Amino acid sequence: MDIIAAISTTQTASAIGIVRVSGEGCFALCDKVFRAANGKPFSAQESRKMVFGEMLDDHGRIIDRGLAVRFSAPHTYTGEDIVEFNCHGSPVVLRELLGGLFAAGARQATAGEFTRRAFLNGKLDLTEAEAVIDLIDAETPAAARNAAAQLDGALRRLLEPVQGSLLEITSRFYAVVDYPDEDIEDIHPEEISAALSTAETALTRLLGTAQRGKILKSGVRTAIVGRPNAGKSSLLNALAGYERAIVTDIPGTTRDTVEESVLCGGVQLRLIDTAGIRETEDAVEKLGVERSRRAMESAQLVLAVVDGTQGFTSEDEEILSQAAKCPKWVLVLSKKDLSPATYTGELKPSAVISLSSTTGEGIDALEAAVAELFPAGNHADAGTLLTDARQEDAVRRAAVSVRRSREALEMGFTPDAILTDAEEALEAIGELTGRTAKEEIVGRIFSRFCVGK
How far is 296 from 275, CA to CA, in rounded Å? Predict the structure, then answer.
């Protein structure tokens, strides 16, 4: 493979910037852009040891002084020789150094090409490669832990016993068929049944993590609804920690949806502050109310806010009845600092929280309720959650194929018919890990990466 280079840190000014190079021959190439203070050529420096020196542009002029380190194949991220330059994080300096590398013979790395080379060289499977971008994009500690564990191979290790048992029964069957003169023990129906049952249980359990995984990765779409001046925008601001939405005593201030992402109880909430729901003749406000209703219908969680100082009105009851159609909804009694309120209605919200957005009293109770509604799981669960639609689809197809195979066995089908479905399950698992993934799928995965990773 040719030599690739890219800036691996932010393109804005920062304290430190990193330029990464990978490919056979990159050590000698970097001799042209780095002059070590110890006088030795960079290609002769000790592997995995930082060396201080001068970075040079394409004309050999000094552009910075910093550190460089070489990593020798195959024990590197990409499986190839790698060089990393650590210099001051000026975008100009980084571009000049990159230009020097291009002049010396390297080319610009494409998005995700370093990680793609790691995959092609057997350093990562596809689940681990996807974990790299998940770790970069993680917005909660739980999401970071799950991605880090998957990067360490947690998902692959979970699938290896399933893959191994299915390979065992299929390979033994074909060995008996293809080599009838060899002394190979026949595969018995009981062995096939046990392997299929174990595989089906494991795949079904893994498939059951997909919903939690999506929430961990993408957050919970949350609508804040209520009458005008109920305290919706104040709640948004309290959770966001700054004045995200305008708050006034004038009803109908919020006329469109206002969105903000916040961490609440360790869960990422994609908050949507909606227009106050009421009957109105104002054309603009009416559009806002309609958007509020749509936001409530599509939400995974509804925070139904009722003004605790005014009691429940017929409009409140109508809003609560709409909120109750959401799988999970919390009744928030606002303005606790002015007048503590209680709820005695017939509807059964997931939780009832009395709080004050002004003083912060009760916010911790709301965070606890959200954490209970959307549990991130314990440390033992890290790495075992499906966080991607591609992963979920592959596991679902594998589970369906194993189930068909088991049902065919129970119906008395011949082993060749039974194991055809088992082979389809192996194909689906191979797509998940990358063993049998098509180039189109691989390309789509790595297109999500930034340049330099």
Answer: 11
Query: Side by side, which strands form the sheet with 329-334?
Result: 258-264, 267-273, 220-226, 301-307, 329-334, 351-354
Contact 22, 82 (CB under 8 A): yes
Beta strand 220-226 pairing with 301-307: parallel
DSSP state of 53: E
Q: Which residues of 324-350 are buried (b: 16+ CB within 10 A; e: fewer)?
A: bebebbbbbbbbbbeeebeeeeeeebb
How confident is the model at residue 41, as a pLDDT?
A: 95
DSSP class per residue in 314-364: HHHHHHHHHHTTSSSEEEEEE-TTT-------S---SEEEE--TTT-TTHH
Q: Which residue has 């679902």 as its token pair?
A: 396
Predicted confidence (pLDDT) per residue in 151-190, tens digit? 898 998 999 999 988 888 887 776 655 555 555 556 677 8
Look at the chain and count its residues: 453
Q: What are phi and psi of 64, to 5 degrees?
A: -170, 165
132 residue type, one letter: V
**CB of 209 closer than 8 Å to CB of 385:** yes
pLDDT in tens, 331-364: 999 888 887 778 877 888 999 999 888 898 999 9
4-109, which class in CATH? alpha beta
**Cβ-Cβ contacts under 8 Å for 218 (sequence gap 6 or more):** 268, 270
Confidence band for 397, pLDDT divided at 50, 70 and 90: very high
- Residues 31-47 have pLDDT tens digits of 999 999 999 999 999 99
Judged by DSSP in three states, 206 sits in helix
Candidates 3.40.50.300, 3.40.50.1100, 1.10.10.60, 3.30.950.30; correct CATH number of 216-373? Answer: 3.40.50.300
